[in-house]
Specification:
By secondary structure, this protein is an all-alpha fold. It is built from 23 helices and no strands. α5 packs antiparallel against α6, α9 packs antiparallel against α10 and α16 packs antiparallel against α17. The two termini are 41 Å apart.
Length: 444
Amino acid sequence: MRSAFFVPASFALLSTGLLLPLCGPAQAPSSSSGAPQPSPAISAPTPQAVPGEITAAESAIASSDWKTAESRLDTFLAAHPTDARALFDAGYVADAQNRLDDAASLYRRAIAANPQSFEANLSLGLLLARQNKTAEARPELVTATTLDPGAADPVLKARAWRALARIDRDSNPAAASSELIEALKLSPETTSDTLLAAELAEKTGQTGAAADAYRRVLAKEPDSAPATIGLAHLLIEQKQYPDAESLLRAGLARHPDDPTLTAQLATVLADQNKAEAVPLLQKLHTAHPGDPAITRMLAEVLADSGDFAGSDQLFQQLLALQPDNSDLLVAHGQNLVRQGRLSEAFAAFDKATQIDPASVDGWSGLAFAAFRINRPGITLHALAMRSRYQPENAATLFLWAQAYDTLHQKQQAAAYYHKFLDAAAGNLPDQEWQARQRLKLLEK
């Protein structure tokens, strides 16, 4: 019943470098001293042509004196409202002070004044991406990749490519891979790049390349939680549980409170039937009682360990929040069956199949519960519905035979007992003995 719990190795939409405004309005990268150095605006033909108010504002920006810069720029823009350089500088000042709506508006005005402004297009795209407005960010970033950076450092264009790669990684991982390659043509590979490359390789089915990338990160940065999580996920998917367990224990030694690493280790332990999984998940659930994924995982592990009542308490908590979740209803019904509460189980499965008519487990549970409460007609209906979505197996064939047998439909019962015996092929000795005894009577 349990499905492997995995919170994908998550990264911010933009890496740390991309979360910040550009190095300075209309500026080249910082000098070796760390202070941004003013340089000509793209719209200005020569430094001598830069008005004094803008020069004074950019000097204030270089010192992070935002109030002075803002005052100077406001005065200048009152008389020159379409000056592209001043608009970009004002947008940068607003961006640096986290006045994001103001910054976006000023960047847009700068672009309207000078559509070829690389810095304005890039800054607006990055700002919108930070706000998760990816549909608006993407065209601005695409435009930035096509523009001449002018006096700005050409390496800044790599930031546009990286941002595009992160925007496209879920919807178009192949395109995201190409965009990341373009970024790496302009600037050295970073750990964040390697992690993104691993994620994209996994999304495109290149699991070997993904694992190699995660291992490269861990070779350089053994403390990297994202790389540990990503590699562990691949190992769990491939059922390499001992390797995953060793990796996760080492990761948790460095990050003892990481919920994803803890959940992954619990998954590995549970899949190896190790009792340590339950207390580990209980500790995690205590720390994160409102996390439905952790609650569900603990509920499933408790069910696997035989604590059906404890498991069902957790499933009922989840159902209180999602009463029409068919998967939760099926899990609830399975726990009720195991506790012998068959009428309640029947109701849970019936509701689940009404919500999701394609629920194979729901129809299977309904067929079984109906038979056990002596409603073989509903058993046959449930089995017929199940067969629309999944082939028969030995268990369902035996249930078909029993339902027909209970209804005294001897010919159909005998036919299904024979089908069951062929499918079971010696793997279900108790049921096979029962089927042969019934066939002796039915065919006498």
